[in-house]
Amino acid sequence: VCCILCKTSLKILDEVVACYRHLASCVGGCTDSLQLRDELRQTRDKAQKLAAANCHHLTSHLRDKSLPEEQRKEMELLWVAFSSSLELLHADMCKVFNMGDIFSLANSAVFVQTGIQGGGSEVAARALSMPDLNQAQSPVLPEGLETQERSTMEQEISQVDHMITDMEMKVNVLRWMVESRGPQYAEPLNSTDSASLALLSMDEEQPGAEHEAARHHSQMLMMLLLLAVILLAAALSVSVVIFS
Q1: Side-chain half-sphere of 145: how many Cα atoms within 13 Å?
Q2: Positive or negative CA dihedral for 210, 213, 219, 222?
Q3: Which value, in Å, is the radius of gyration of the alpha carbons in the chain?
Q4: Which of 205, 228, 42 is nearest to 120 (CA)?
Q5: Membrane-crossing residues (predicted)?
Q6: Which domain holds residue 35?
Q7: Of 1, 164, 145, 189, which Cα lies nearest the Cα of 87?
């Protein structure tokens, strides 16, 4: 039951982190605005709350000496997935922080005209609609509080960095020793991929008539070229004998 709950919580975190990454790609572009920055802040808050909950559950279970071996392997696999998701969140937070320093909302004239329109609000709405999240919508951040927001974000980046370091110190899991276990973690091929692989195999095993014709044509050209060289050599030999 614990593994199922952790998997569900981790899946929600992954989706929120993915939404945050999408929103982060809009910072400094033509869709950047106070609304986008506020959506980023809300999504970031939800991701941090989920990360803290996942960190607590995984750390407590992996530090439990009485945890069965099979369940420990499952938890280690989830720990590696969670660590990767947390590192992605940290990297995107740093990116938003640095981009916000370059592209200030006080001067929208410097924004890059990427041509992208809309889409941010829908992504933020998806992240904020995840289960176990606070649905309260905060008001849009006033421009006068941009400096304070950046200071808060810097503290949040430090907290996530501390969380990553703290997990690595408390839980001794060697990432390169953790492997996926079974078909449930594999990506099955769909019908299109299977058909493509089958056609590719057929092409490799049975060359088509066009390939055969091209090969025979090349052989004929080589034979004609060799014959021409022999005739030329014979003509030169006869000429040398006649004129000598």
Answers
A1: 10
A2: negative
A3: 31
A4: 42
A5: 221-243
A6: 1-107+118-134+141-170
A7: 164
Return the sign of the alpha-carbon dihedral for residues 131, 133, 136, 141.
negative
Residue 25 located in a structural domain? yes
Whether 54 is in a domain gets the answer: yes
Residues paired with residue 14 on neighbouring β-strands, in sequence order: none
Residue 184 carries which DSSP code? G
Q: Which neighbouring-strand residues pair with 2? A: none
For CA atoms 82, 87, 90, 95, give the dihedral sign: negative
Between 178 and 101, whose confidence is greater?
101
Task: Report yes or no on 178 lying in a domain.
Answer: no
In a domain, 62, yes or no: yes
Q: Enter the pTM of the model.
A: 0.62
What's residue 185's pLDDT?
A: 47
Using the predicted structure, report yes or no on whether residue 104 has a pLDDT greater than 60.
yes
Nearest one of 39, 41, 42, 45 to 149, comparing CA atoms: 41
How confident is the model over 29-44, as pLDDT tens digits? Answer: 877 788 888 899 999 9
Domain with 155 in it: what CATH number? 1.20.58.70
The Cα–Cα gap between 55 and 163 comes to 8
Domain count, the chain: 1
